[in-house]
Design goal:
The protein is mainly β. The protein has four helices and 22 strands.
C-alpha cells in the first residue's frame, strides 16, 4: 500500500517521515491492547484480534490505521450478501443522487477526492495486488468545463457521471438487496478476491494536503478474527516466531530505513516527490519527553494511574526539543479533542500541567508555523488504580 500510505498522514512529509509515523501509530495501538490486557490479567497471547487476509497463514490486525488527518471520514464496512463479502461506504449512494447531495451526505466540499483502495489476495504476498481509484467530486463536461453540482453523480450504468479529468481508475457502483451502494468492478476481479478495503478523503488547501483518519475494513472482522495464539498455532503448532524487520515486506521496509518514495501522480500528491511534502524545511526534532517525571520515548505510551479511589490525576508534561525548527506550540488531545490551550515553547522546551485529567488516552501533538499539527508519537494512558496487579482492575476497566 506504499503508493498511498507513504503520504496519507496529514501534515507529515512524504516518504520516511510518514512511514515512521505510520509504524509508530500502529505499534501504539498494539501496545495499548497489550497493556490493557496485562492490567486485566489476560494472557499475552490473546492480546489482539487478527483477521485472515485470504492467503494461507496470513493475518492482519483489526482496525489498521492507514491515514490520519482532520477531514470527515467515509467509513467502510463489510456485509454478507449471499455468499459474497461486499464493502460499501456507510452512506447510501443511489443513481438519483446529485454531486451536491453526495457531498452533503459525506460532509465534504466540491473538489474533494475519494480514494477507494483494495487489497486483492494472491497465492503469495508478492503476487497480491493493491489497487486504487480516485473520484474527484467536481463534475465537468466533455471539454472539462465545470458543471453545476446539480449534475447526477452516477450515470445509468452506475459509473461516476461527468468525471473530472483528474479522476483516476474507472469503477462501478452497484446496488444490493438492502439498497446500500457498494463498489467492486474494475478495482478487483471478484468480491471474494478482496481481503481489505478502505476509502481516504483528501483536500488541498493552499499548499497543504489534508486527509481523513481511515482504518482498513476486512471481511468478517468480528466473527472471523483470531487471537495471537490462534495465529501461531496455525503457522506451526505454536512455535515462537521472530519478526524479520529487514524484510522488504515489513512495514514498507521501515526496518531498513524505508524505501525511497516514488514520484507521485494525480491529485493525491503530498508534495510531488520524496523531497516535497507539507513539512517546512526547518523541521522540529524532539530529544526528550516526560510525564510526571517518567521518560517517554518516540512511538511509546506511558501509563499514569490515578490515586486509589479517584478517577482523575494531574499530569505534569515536559517536551524538550533538540531543534525547535517549525514547532510553535505543544498541544494535548483526548479522543480527538484538544485539552486546554496551546502551550508555548520557551527556549527549547514546553512544560505544562493538566489538572484532574480523567481516565482515558491522551496524545501529545506539535503545532507548526504553518498552523498544521503533527503527532510525534507520544501517548499517555490515564488508568484507574490497580490494587491487584495481574488479577484485574479494582474499580474501573482500563481505558
Amino acid at each position: 500500500m506504499k503508493a498511498i500510505c507513504d503520504h496519507s498522514f496529514e501534515g507529515t512529509k512524504k516518504g520516511q517521515e510518514t512511514m515512521s509515523l505510520f509504524m509508530s501509530e500502529n505499534i501504539q495501538k498494539c501496545r495499548a491492547a497489550i497493556e490493557e490486557m496485562q492490567a486485566q490479567g489476560v494472557n499475552f497471547v490473546n492480546m489482539f484480534s487478527f483477521v485472515p487476509v485470504g492467503m494461507k497463514h496470513a493475518f492482519a490486525p483489526n482496525q489498521y490505521l492507514v491515514a490520519m488527518g482532520s477531514l470527515p471520514q467515509v467509513k467502510t464496512a463489510w456485509i454478507e450478501d449471499g455468499t459474497s463479502h461486499i464493502v460499501y461506504p456507510t452512506v447510501q449512494l443511489v443513481t438519483t443522487n446529485t454531486y451536491e447531495e453526495v457531498i452533503n451526505k459525506l460532509g465534504l466540499k466540491r473538489g474533494d477526492q475519494l480514494t477507494f483502495c483494495t487489497v486483492k489476495q494472491g497465492a503469495t504476498i508478492q503476487e497480491s495486488q493493491f489497487n486504487f481509484a480516485r473520484v474527484i467530486l467536481d463534475p465537468t463536461d466533455e471539454n472539462f468545463n465545470a458543471l453545476p453540482l446539480s449534475t447526477a453523480f452516477l450515470d445509468e450504468n452506475g459509473y461516476v457521471n461527468k468525471p473530472s479529468v483528474r479522476n483516476e481508475g474507472k469503477f462501478k457502483f452497484l446496488i444490493n438487496a438492502s439498497g446500500l451502494r457498494y463498489w467492486y468492478e474494475d478495482l478487483y476481479t471478484t468480491e471474494e478476491d478482496a481481503v481489505a478495503a478502505f476509502v481516504i478523503v483528501s483536500r488541498k488547501e493552499g499548499d497543504t494536503w489534508k486527509r481523513s483518519t481511515t482504518y482498513v475494513a476486512y471481511p468478517g472482522e468480528t466473527a472471523g478474527s483470531y487471537s495471537m495464539q490462534d495465529c501461531l498455532d496455525m503457522v506451526s503448532n505454536g512455535a515462537q516466531h521472530t519478526i524479520y524487520a529487514g524484510s522488504d515486506q515489513y512495514l514498507n521496509n521501515a526496518g531498513e530505513g524505508g524505501g525511497q518514495a516514488a514520484a507521485e501522480t494525480g491529485g493525491e500528491s503530498g508534495g510531488g516527490s520524496s523531497s516535497g511534502g507539507d513539512t517546512p524545511a526547518a523541521a522540529f526534532a524532539i530529544s526528550a519527553a516526560t510525564v510526571n517525571g517518567e521518560t517517554m520515548t518516540v512511538g511509546s505510551g506511558k501509563t499514569i494511574r490515578c490515586a486509589e479511589g479517584e478517577e482523575t490525576e494531574d499530569l505534569d508534561i515536559r517536551v524538550v526539543f533538540s531543534n525547535v525548527g517549525s514547532a510553535q506550540a505543544i498541544q494535548l488531545f483526548k479522543n480527538g479533542t484538544q485539552v486546554g490551550n496551546d502551550h508555548a515553547i520557551d527556549g527549547n522546551a514546553a512544560n505544562f500541567v493538566v489538572s484532574a485529567a480523567a481516565i482515558g488516552t491522551y496524545t501529545i501533538k506539535v503545532k507548526k508555523s504553518d498552523n498544521s499539527v503533527a503527532t510525534p508519537g507520544y501517548t499517555i494512558y490515564v488508568a484507574a488504580y490497580q490494587s491487584n496487579p495481574g488479577g484485574g482492575m479494582d474499580r474501573a476497566q482500563y481505558v
